[in-house]
Amino acid sequence: MLTLHAADLLIAVPGTEPVPGGAVVVDGDTVAALGPYEELAAAFPRVRRWPGVLTPGLRQWHGAYLLKRAYHPDPREYDELGDRPLTGERLEALDMTDARWAGSVRRGLQQMLRHGTTAVAIGSDPVVSTAVARSGLTAVSALGAPGILAEEPSLDPLRNAYGLGDAVAGPLTVGGRADFAAFDVPDAYALEEAGAGTCVATVLAGRLVYRRR
């Protein structure tokens, strides 16, 4: 069934003029139409409405680091370890079995979806590659990643890039894969300032894979 995703602002291609009251029509895993909501609503009555802006899905340039050099605690471990990724000495202090690593990778990917990520740069590790394939996220090369970071990579792709245009996985186009996200901010500038933690929904190949409750 065709689904129309609408928001206050649509940024299909960062750097170009956004569409106020814009919408994305999804047919299966593909973008069927883009444009003003008022022009599309009559033909596509099934609507999901989101606050803020719709943008293309984001690319996590540092997926290999975040999934293999950081441990993402299980919620049952929050009291002991906290809810932030563990790296360095704190990671070295953990007894990391293969099963524990696999669980961490799955949780790390879930956290990426919560930040509007639809594509992730990974290495050749089989555990990471398998988990990414199962998640539906697109595996991409790290070639062309932004320069060296002053701090450890963030789960927020916007903190690892030079603006929204550098962070998106690709433009939203009719006939292209329906990978996009909604952020509860008024415009692109506010999104770059506030970060991808403002994500309220992530759509991956047409599927709603994350929705903030």
List the helices and strands and how they pair.
Layout: E1 3-6, E2 9-10, E3 19-20, E4 22-27, E5 30-36, H1 37-40, E6 47-49, E7 53-56, E8 58-60, H2 63-68, H3 78-81, H4 88-92, H5 98-113, E9 117-121, H6 126-135, E10 138-140, H7 164-167, E11 180-183, H8 188-194, E12 199-204, E13 207-211
Parallel strand pairs: 1-6, 2-7, 8-9, 9-10
Antiparallel strand pairs: 1-4, 2-3, 4-5, 7-11, 11-12, 12-13
Helix pairs in contact: 5-6
Description:
It is built from eight helices and 13 strands. It is of the alpha/beta class and 213 residues long. Strands 3-2-7-11-12-13 form a six-stranded mixed sheet, with no helix packed on it. It has a four-stranded mixed sheet with strand order 5-4-1-6. It is elongated. The model has no long low-confidence stretch (mean pLDDT 91).
Main sheet strand line-up:
3-2-7-11-12-13
What kind of sheet is the major sheet? 6 strands, mixed
**Rounded mean pLDDT score:** 91
| SS class | alpha/beta
Total helical segments: 8
State the helical fraction.
25-40%
Structural domain tally: 2
Low-confidence stretches: none
Short description:
This protein has 213 residues and is an alpha/beta fold. The chain has helices at 37-40, 63-68, 78-81, 88-92, 98-113, 126-135, 164-167, 188-194, and strands spanning 3-6, 9-10, 19-20, 22-27, 30-36, 47-49, 53-56, 58-60, 117-121, 138-140, 180-183, 199-204, 207-211. The strands form three sheets. Strands 3-2-7-11-12-13 form a six-stranded mixed beta sheet, with no helix packed on it. The chain has a four-stranded mixed beta sheet with strand order 5-4-1-6. It has a three-stranded parallel beta sheet with strand order 8-9-10, with helices on one face.
